[in-house]
């Protein structure tokens, strides 16, 4: 069993770096605060006897040797960067749970068969630099190191120069680092576990995700003198699509998700009929087939709206992450550990993307969820219970031990 | 008959002050450009032998004496300020049509029974200082001089200090200036005349107008991990109200108008379910009874949406202008002049507010509309045909002559 108090204290110590007034954390990727956070975790790693490697995109691997040097390491981790109004647990928990596993093994003098590593990936949040999950994405070859290096923040600073500035531009070629299996503990970021009153979420898969930009173009005109029948009101057409996005998701339960999160109206004036509306569409589901059906239904509805309204409507897919089923061996290891430890649990398909989906492209991978208060994350009021965090870390320890590598 | 070419030339000369690259005009109230525009019109008035009075809110009256000094003047006018991306005709046409009437009377050596005055009212547009139709509003007592003086632009400059700076802080107490009858020529700002291929719009009334701010509050949450059934999506509820606004207007033709022009979504992030949506509602109709019915139906729908969704929904009325029927004598004078001159015409209820609705509170008033291209105004591409502008000015001349004052 791990030491829950020590885990909690480490979480709180790390959360002090970039702490916000409202109890959250603002520690954007590759800022001075991120450097301080990274330095603290690396210091703790070295104090626990770990050997530290940094790759060219700033991913950090901290290694504890196993008995058998020929085995690939069992890796666990997550990220230490946060959202601008982020919480204490998102990402940070996954890294410090890994560190707590190491400390526990040290306490007990247990030597594992395979080496064990704690990793943290660069810029998972994507708040400062796009794309999200950058470090793990480069690692698995989803996009190139050059693409990542060229990403710039709003001030025009590039990932490469910021990595160099904070001292985390490593030598190792990303992806060259061998991984035997990958586990990631994370707060659920949703309300399912709390709603069902379960402690551990066994994560069989991460939903696939399609992001779109939709633009409806009508004709702006004065709200008073323009009769209803002569209007080309872009907002009225856009709202029918916004509602359909939710109806589509509701047609494919339990994992269908449909969200319009971002809307811009032009010219956005009280007495002007909107001439143009831009909005985002976010569709998710657990299988390629279901996600594709949702995609087709959305496009069909848009085509129908275009015809019915006579307005120009453009839809462009701007991101796509395919559904990611985790490796049965890893999922079973998590399930077995949970049962052995006697925690209440259920399967929870992850609705949010995580570094684990990229890790899963290069090694067997799995995830462990713990509840977070009211399902809230990406918010300074994000919260989680110490006993739940301890439970997730215990499950991680035992899942890793169940799985001696490949 | 007035001189259409002279009218057009004056319109183009005035439009040169604050001309924009796209062919529009930017001459915001009480700026240096507004001063130049005012100075030019006043110079033209003096050249035409008019006596100029400025009141304490900067409204300008330019007087041509009549035979009978005991009669109140027949006043015509509009405004010379423009929107930030305004056109050449909105307001400016009404003032220069009045000046062209004077010039025509001078040319013919006609002395009228009642005095004739050309007025321009301060800050009709309300783009720089709120509220709109400020000069005529203070004049008729809709709000106080102090309220108007205290209005500030985004830089914090007040109406009073700007009036003083540009030299248009007059002596006369607003409202003390007697008006026998008021006529205003204006571009329609809508597509009705053009659609029906008519030259003159006889304006029997201006629609009443209710403005609301609506706020729907749900719970922001992550778009991926939050199941559809556990969401409190503020946008999905808001869109039902946005659509109902249009349905309500369609239930009360031909003058019902319903517009949602302004929308703000919080936090407005692609993968966050909207926690709050603020939007504007603009309802209009020609009678108090109809507008009130629309108001009640909107509130009833909101109450129903509140109950059905469980979300907090607030609606606040932020402005109200009652419907303004014009005086039958003035409307008939316009109709008679149009018929006498043989122009094609129709009745067009004004959907937009004008200085004439405030003038109508203190004197018999009427308006004359001419078509504008595609019904577009408050836009640099606003356009109108010289022959239509000439026709409207001829109707103004004859309507004023038909109406010898009270
Ligand atoms: N974990 C997380 O918030 N990932 C961002 C991408 C997503 O919306 O799933
Ligand atoms: N003429 C005009 O645009 N007035 C502004 C108020 C309104 O929306 O009617």
From TrEMBL, chains A, B:
Q: What keywords appear on the UniProt entry?
A: Hydrolase
Q: Which domain of life is it from?
A: Bacteria
Entry's InterPro entries? Amidase_Cbmase (IPR010158), Bact_exopeptidase_dim_dom (IPR036264), Peptidase_M20 (IPR002933)
Question: Gene3D superfamilies attached here?
Answer: 3.30.70.360, Zn peptidases (3.40.630.10)
Q: Does the keyword Hydrolase apply?
A: yes
One GO MF annotation is: hydrolase activity
* Transmembrane spans: none
Entry similarity comment: Belongs to the peptidase M20 family.
Q: Which PANTHER family match?
A: ALLANTOATE AMIDOHYDROLASE, ALLANTOATE DEIMINASE-RELATED
The identity of this protein, by name, is Zn-dependent hydrolase
Species this protein is from: Massilia agri
């Amino acid at each position: 069993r791990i030491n829950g108090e020590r885990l909690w204290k480490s979480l709180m110590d790390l959360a002090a770096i970039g702490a916000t007034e409202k109890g959250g954390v603002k520690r954007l990727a590759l800022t001075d605060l991120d450097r301080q956070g990274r330095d603290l975790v690396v210091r703790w790693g070295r104090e626990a006897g770990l050997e530290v490697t940094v790759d060219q995109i700033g991913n950090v691997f901290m290694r504890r040797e196993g008995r058998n040097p020929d085995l690939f390491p069992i890796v666990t981790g997550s990220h230490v960067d946060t959202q601008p109004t982020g919480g204490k647990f998102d990402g940070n928990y996954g890294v410090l749970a890994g560190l707590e596993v190491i400390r526990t093994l040290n306490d007990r003098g247990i030597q594992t068969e395979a080496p064990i590593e704690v990793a943290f990936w660069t810029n998972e949040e994507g708040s400062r630099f796009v794309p999200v999950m950058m470090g793990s994405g480069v690692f698995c070859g989803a996009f190139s190191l050059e693409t990542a290096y060229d990403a710039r923040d709003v001030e025009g600073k590039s990932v490469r120069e910021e990595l160099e500035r904070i001292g985390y531009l490593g030598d190792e070629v990303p992806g060259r680092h061998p991984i035997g299996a990958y586990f990631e503990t994370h707060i659920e970021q949703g309300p399912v576990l709390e709603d069902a009153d379960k402690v551990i979420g066994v994560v069989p898969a991460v939903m696939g995700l399609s992001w779109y930009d939709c633009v409806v173009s009508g004709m702006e005109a004065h709200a008073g003198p323009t009769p209803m029948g002569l209007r080309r009101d872009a907002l009225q057409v856009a709202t029918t699509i916004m509602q359909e996005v939710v109806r589509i998701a509701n047609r494919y339960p339990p994992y269908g998700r449909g969200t319009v999160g971002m809307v811009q109206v032009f010219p956005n004036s009280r007495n002007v009929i909107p001439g143009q509306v831009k909005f985002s569409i976010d569709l998710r589901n657990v299988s390629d087939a279901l996600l594709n059906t949702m995609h087709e239904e959305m496009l069909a509805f848009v085509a129908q709206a275009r015809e019915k309204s006579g307005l120009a409507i453009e839809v462009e897919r701007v991101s796509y992450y395919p559904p990611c089923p985790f490796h049965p061996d890893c999922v079973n290891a998590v399930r077995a550990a949970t049962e052995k430890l006697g925690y209440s649990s259920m399967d929870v398909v992850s609705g949010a993307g995580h570094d684990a989906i990229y890790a899963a492209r290069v090694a067997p991978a799995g995830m462990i969820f713990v509840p977070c208060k009211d399902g809230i994350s990406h918010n300074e009021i994000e919260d989680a219970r110490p006993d739940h965090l301890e439970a997730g870390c215990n499950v991680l320890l035992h899942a890793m031990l169940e799985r001696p590598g490949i």
